Amino acid sequence: MTEHEQKVARMRELGDILREAAKAYYQQGDEIMSNLEYDRLYDELLALEEETGMVLSGSPTAQVGYAAVDELPKERHAAPMLSLDKTKDREALRAFIGDHKTLLSWKLDGLTIVLTYRDGALEKAVTRGNGEIGEVVTNNAKTFVGIPLKIPYRGDLVLRGEAVISYPDFDRINEEIPETEARYKNPRNLCSGSVRQLNSEITAARSVRFFAFALVQAPGVDFAGSHEKEFEWLAKQGFPVVEYRVTDGAGLDEALDWFSGRIASYEIPSDGLVALYDDIEYGISLGRTAKFPRNAMAFKWKDELRETTLLEVEWSPSRTGLINPVAVFSPVELEGTTVSRASVHNVSIVRSLALGLGDVITVYKANMIIPQIADNLTRSGTLPIPETCPVCGGPTSIHAENGAETLHCENPDCQAKKIKAFTLFVSRDAMNIDGLSEMTLEKLIGAGLIHSFADIFRLADHADRIAGMEGFGEKSCTNLLEGIERARHTTLPRLLFALGIPNVGASNAKVICRAFDYDPARVASAPAEALAAADGIGPVIARSVTDWFADEKNRESFEALLAELVLEEPERDAAQSLAGKTFVITGSVHHFANRSAAKAAIEAAGGKVSGSVSAKTDFLVNNDTASGSAKNRAAKQLQIPIITEEQLLAMLGEE
């Protein structure tokens, strides 16, 4: 690594460290480094930016202001952007390469972007569009991971690259979308929507990455006629360049094997490779066809097919009532991994494949990643379409949607449709069950293992079956069951909040339980008048609680849970020294582990904690009492006392 590359690597490292520290301080109320250390690292980054003449995207020294537009303007490219001719045949690719030095790189599966820099600053970013006209997405591009905002080169630079979203970020973003059917189908679709947002703040949250793959112009720079020299120069300007290997026809097998050995674990979506002649002038001399340039060719992975036997089709319901068929077959090795399941998507595909249990099918991995059924060699057509839902037993019906037939559960009370309630039940402020993500809940509910809240605490009875399910194993199953056992020991406020009673949040649940001395029987049978009399509850919340417990099914669910749980009474301040007082906590804390711990201490002493300063606030807790923050300003305007953590401890009787 050259000295310049070491400096750029250090800049990226410093940016990550400083962003993490700022996030902890301003969003989580934690201080993971001193102000002195933060300033020292910030100054180091600033000095490196001055030395290299570049500022990387997301740099704490040059935060980009978010911008929103009413529409994305269109712009015609200076020259049409052509597609590449393609092949799946290794020998055809070898014939194309011949004896020429060739750069073999990932063919990234995202959205192509053209960047223009002038005087060392990013001036414009335009999508590929239809190859002739694209959309201007400059504001959004400034938030991409990997795009430098300033570079050392001061000429008019134009380059092309791919905006992509990694598989881990794709999974993270989809997990945050509650409706299964609203989730993105693949990273490319998500990337396309993210790049073309009208509000760049949304784009920034999507972690779009950028990799340069072609230099269009850089006047005054001598690349010695080599595309590889262009790549090396772009890297020195601060651009992440698409990963590549240098090869020729004789070395092609080794290069292809290197890429194919990495595709299964490569985090960036790729649907093949690109072979580009290194000699720029030779490539130009070849010209182009009406559709393709002649100096490059795309290589698409040839699908590896395996024969296997269809053992079962699982019909997995979702929260909207859609029931998705999943094929289970005898395990086979595909692209270096063992697979035994593949989505069949809908009833139309089940029928077009004429599936039946015991049929001999061929399977493959689309783009070497996603298992699919290629064909059914037996075509018995004997697989029945379920007439009842596998979760609730309710009737099913077939709907025609967008030219495809899909199976749906018609029971409005189907447990699979109540996934949101189960997601709340296991959440951190409720039962806090580690390992029970929404996706895992959907699998367990779809498999018929969970029908009620109490069933979660009986999953140990199905340990062998869970360990054999897709995405599980002995270790993950053990971790899940251990997390459930830990959650058995909980408090009544957590349980009350977990039930999902309308209008009852985590704070209200604590107030209600405190008012009835943490007795579950008293809470469940409390009349509305007594509930409404509790501080801050009122008639609306009281009626929600009494209505919920008046429902026989809800009451049975509550009783079943009590039989599975060990309720531990929260520590209480007998003096209730902060009763009737409302606090707002902001900034970092030193004596408590975090702001949540400070909140718990206030509530244990009878106080309440709000998220914003208002006329109902009694105290604002901020160790930086002289800060000019919005909350401090609001408190001063409303003449609300701003107290330090030490003063809060004194009020709690701990100082």
Fill in the keyword field for this structure.
single chain; 655 residues; D-amino Acid Aminotransferase, Chain A, domain 1; OB fold (Dihydrolipoamide Acetyltransferase, E2P); 6 domains; 7-stranded antiparallel sheet
Describe this structure in words.
It is a single chain. This protein has 655 residues and is of the alpha+beta class. It folds into 6 domains: 3-52; 74-299, DNA ligase/mRNA capping enzyme (D-amino Acid Aminotransferase, Chain A, domain 1); 306-408, Nucleic acid-binding proteins (OB fold (Dihydrolipoamide Acetyltransferase, E2P)); 415-490, DNA polymerase, domain 1; 492-567, DNA polymerase, domain 1; 582-651, Rossmann fold (3-Layer(aba) Sandwich). Helices cover 35% and strands 21% of the residues. The protein contains 24 helices and 24 strands. Strands 12, 13, 14, 15, 16, 17 and 18 form a 7-stranded antiparallel beta sheet that branches. It has a 5-stranded mixed beta sheet with strand order 2-11-10-3-9. Strand 15 and strand 16 form a beta hairpin. The longest helix is centred in the N-terminal third of the chain and has 25 residues, at 3-27. The protein is flat.
